[in-house]
Amino acid sequence: MKLLKIVFLCALCVLIYSESDSDIWMHIADKNWIANYIANDGIRGLTILLTFGAIFTACGGPRQLIAFTFGFTFGSILGVVFCLLSAITGAVCTYALAAWIFRDTLTRRLGKRYKKFKGFVDTQPFSKVLLLRIFPLGSNLITNLLSGVTGVPVLSFIAASLLGYLPQTIIFVLAGAGVGSASQWQLIVSIILGIVSIALTHYLYQRYKQSLHSEEQLGEHSNV
What we know:
By secondary structure, the chain is mainly alpha-helical. It has helices spanning about 1-20, 25, 30-60, 65-75, 75-100, 105-110, 110-120, 125-135, 140-150, 155-180, 185-220. Helix 7 (about 110-120) crosses helix 9. The chain is flat. Pfam families: VTT_dom (PF09335).
């Protein structure tokens, strides 16, 4: 197992180093440059872009920027697929590093945040991670690290991340695709989905607060 951890870490370091001098780092916010890059480099360019997207999001970069750029470059459907692929790959890499290699170090450094998160996800880890993914104020990087450190089941982590990433991914991909094709309906749909996403987030957060209130009441009755 120790050898596997070393191999995984070395492979990840080589992958990051191989992309460290890529022009994509300087032009990721330039949707026209990215579109031309893919048009000129084909499959190789696509592979590098997906790899970059995974590294970018794994390091805490905003998924919304990747989604908008991919939407402009690839259109609605492929933009959503490629953005989710990059984001999930990046999340799993960060989760794996936290769970397999840096668990002891992160547990000490995260301290109270570790204990608070562990108490939060001990029950219904899928729904709790899903809530954090959908809630727009949550830190993607911290959620990945804490999920790995606290031992959130990997399938629950991936499934919750995939569903939680989907609303904002669709919104920003459609916005990017609408700009790329000058399509007003895609921009309008992205705005409507943004409103729906906010409403859904509010609903889930209220349900979470209600469940906390119910648990507190149950604890008070059990102590009587």
